[in-house]
Amino acid sequence: MSDIEIRDDRAAGRLEAIGGGSGEVVGHIEYFVLESPEGALVPVHTIVEPAHEGKGIAGSLARELYATAKREGIVVAPLCPYVVKWAERHPDEAPPAAPELLRAAKQWLVAHPGRF
Quick check: pTM over 0.70? Predict the structure, then answer.
């Protein structure tokens, strides 16, 4: 994993894993920022290119998403099944989101059907 750089493209709503040297996006998490009832990062999809599966890229992306939220003083409200499972396996790094926040994230997603 040392040859992977992770960057946050907030404008595009993508946390990207960039292959060392190639500049190629080898995986990403698509997310949106929820403003209300409180600020949250809401991951919707995690995708790793088939040639790069099994290298820990998805886990590194999930870890960085939670670290980013912590640095910003907000929470992660995961809707992505992979991030939900990752969070269950790493409760020390991934505090659970309040049920009302998850409901608000789901409502936002329904209200923006073309976004993902």
Answer: yes
